[in-house]
Specification:
Largest sheet: 6 strands, antiparallel
Shape: elongated
Radius of gyration: 37 Å
Structural class: mainly beta
Number of domains: 3
Number of strands: 33
Oligomer: single chain
Keywords: Signal
């Protein structure tokens, strides 16, 4: 009997300090389970054979689906050996948190604790969250506190593509700027249909400070641009009306430039008779000009023969407020204007335009959708062949036929 007990003790001692294999006589770690019992008797298993294995190696690292967990990982879950269509993921614990500061559902959570929130317990956010020591936050470290905004800048809304056609399926992006974000979370939204279009917003987090909300606009529009579509936006405690559909617009703060040239003319004319790409403001107003007494191009004398105009290029009446910042006279012919389709407003009675004297017009316009633009407008006569008085002033032009009219326009969106 004593011999038997001694023999068992020796065996037990050997097992304690040996590798343990289950379903394998060739364990690859301190503890190794071969799930399908398909490993070789000697040597390392293939990736396919190791795909069903569980291994604990000497340093305590654990491999699932591999017999050689990566040395940098305490847990290495590997699905490389599984065929496409049979691969698996890692499923974390699911909970229904009551708020972003919930410490009751999981008592005393440790910083870094990771769970999947179901969104059914009071905290609406659905997805993986972690405890940062103070609150539950998203994977991107976004706050789960209810999101709030200071303002929504609806007059800065843009749509791309900027136009749509009735009956033609449309998909575009509406960008809505905001300020005063608190970094909190906002829920998904669906607005509409309005004119057959629906604006949708995926759930997310506001920036801290300024940012842009990106809505997907889609549907089959019942109207065509430039007929406008207005989406009522209500988010982050703020509301506004986002009006789109007129076409591409200049963004707040943006400055655009235009320059073109036409040869000398000898009769009165409208710039757009010769220039078909003159700037358009708010997809409504063409910046144009009527030129009178063209022979004054060839004169060094003062002559007011440049009349700045705004043309309404739409099929509807268009209202605009015009204020002149500076011209040669500061004349104003109507500040609060209603311009009929294919008609114009002329708000100065003439600007100097000769090769001896040129002036620049600067005026502001505001539109009913609260957009404010400043237009810098300059026409220059360039007499290519000239003589000088000796002090740098042009005194005559020896070849008037090569004179050109240079057109410069800059438009800046101020609000």
């Amino acid at each position: 009997m004593k011999k038997t007990i001694l023999f068992l003790a020796v065996i037990s001692s050997g097992l304690i300090y040996s590798q343990v294999g289950i379903n394998t006589s060739n364990p690859r770690g301190i503890f190794h389970v071969d799930g399908k019992k398909d490993n070789p008797a000697t040597g390392a298993p293939t990736a396919l054979q190791g795909a069903n294995d569980f291994t604990v190696v000497a340093d305590g690292s654990v491999g699932i689906g591999t017999t050689t967990p990566n040395a940098s990982a305490i847990l290495d879950v590997n699905v490389d050996g599984l065929a496409v269509g049979s691969k698996k993921g890692l499923l974390g614990p699911k909970v229904a948190l009551t708020s972003q500061t919930d410490q009751t559902t999981i008592p005393s959570p440790v910083a870094g604790l990771l769970v999947y929130n179901l969104g059914t317990g009071g905290l609406d956010y659905v997805g993986y969250v972690f405890w940062n020591g103070t609150e539950w936050r998203t994977f991107s470290n976004g706050s789960l506190a209810p999101g709030t905004l200071g303002t929504i800048t609806c007059n800065g809304v843009t749509l791309s593509p900027g136009t749509y056609t009735s009956g033609t399926p449309y998909t575009g992006t509406m960008s809505v700027p905001y300020t005063g974000g608190n970094g909190g979370v906002y829920a998904a939204q669906s607005i509409g249909p309005v004119n057959g279009l629906v604006a949708t917003l995926a759930a997310g987090n506001f920036n801290v400070g300024s940012g842009i909300l990106t809505y997907t606009v889609s549907g089959s529009p019942t109207v065509s641009s430039p007929t406008l579509t207005t989406f009522p936006i209500n988010i982050g405690g703020q509301t506004c009306s986002a009006t789109v559909g007129a076409g591409a617009v200049i963004a707040p703060g943006e400055l655009v430039y235009y320059h073109s040239s036409i040869p000398r003319k000898t009769t009165s004319f409208l710039l757009s008779q010769y220039l078909n790409d003159l700037p358009i403001i708010n997809n409504t107003f063409r910046v144009d000009a009527f030129i009178t007494s063209p022979n004054a191009f060839d004169s060094n004398n003062a002559s007011t023969n440049f009349d700045p105009r705004l043309y309404n290029i739409t099929a509807a009446n268009a209202k605009v407020w015009v204020s002149e910042v500076s011209t040669h006279t500061g004349d104003s012919h109507g500040a609060n204007l209603l311009i009929f389709p294919n008609n114009y407003a002329q708000f100065d009675d003439g600007v100097y335009l000769t090769y001896g004297r040129n002036e620049t017009v600067t005026f502001d316009i505001t539109t009913p959708d609260n957009k404010w633009y400043r237009v810098y407008y300059a026409l220059r006569v360039d007499n290519k062949s000239f003589t000088s008085s000796g002090n740098g002033n042009v005194t005559s032009d020896s070849n008037n036929s090569d004179n050109t009219l240079e057109v410069y326009v800059s438009i800046q969106r101020l609000y």
